[in-house]
Amino acid sequence: MKKNNEATLAAHGSRLTAHESLLISGARVLNPASTLDTIAYVGIHNGVIAHVGREKPREPYAAHLSARGLWLIPGAVDLCARLREPGAAHKATFRTEAPAAAAGGITTVCIPPDTRPVIDTPSVVDRVRARAAKAGGLDIHVLGALTQGLAGSALPDMA
User: What is the DSSP letter of 28?
Assistant: First the structure.
């Protein structure tokens, strides 16, 4: 249950924006951080979770989503996401992969350095971050190479 509500809702075809409110009912809510595991109501106001509980909240919500039989869990983190950029944009791009990841419940991805070009300079890191930011919808972290060109010889100039 993270901040990317608008992107996640958009990935599922909803017209609700993060500035509106949504009440999700009947979902099995699992939160390992708090050991929560129950069927509950989850209320979202302005993109922030405002209510989690077995009782229906009193305040009104702009939209309602029945999630009976579904699970509501914290967003998943993909520690080795192959989003095809840079180097294989002819297969896919951040713009095509980010909504697919969000639809699958992924909120954060880490891009490994074995791209083309290898992520071993600040300029490549900046380029990847800029492309990812334009796509939006996910928290994207860039992992830099430990050696130049992943060759295992010299450290990259990443200072």
Answer: E
User: For 17-52, what is each residue's pLDDT tens digit?
Assistant: 656 899 999 999 998 888 999 999 999 998 889 999
User: How far apart (Å, rounded) are the C-alpha atoms in residues 137 and 5?
Assistant: 9
d(CA 41, CA 121): 47
Q: What is the mean pLDDT of residues 45-70?
A: 92
Beta bridge pairs of residue 139: 108
Residue 142 tokens read as 């860039």
Q: Which two tokens stand for residue 62?
A: 């702009």
pTM: 0.68
CB atoms within 10 A of CB 159: 5
Percent of the chain as helix, strand, coil, to the nearest 5: 20, 30, 50
Summarised one tens digit per residue, pLDDT across range 115-148 is 899 999 999 999 999 988 888 888 989 999 999 9
Q: What is the DSSP string of 93-112?
A: -HHHHHHHHHHTTEEEEEE-
Task: Report residue 159 as tokens.
Answer: 């200072």
d(CA 6, CA 17): 5
Distance CA 157, CA 65 (A): 50
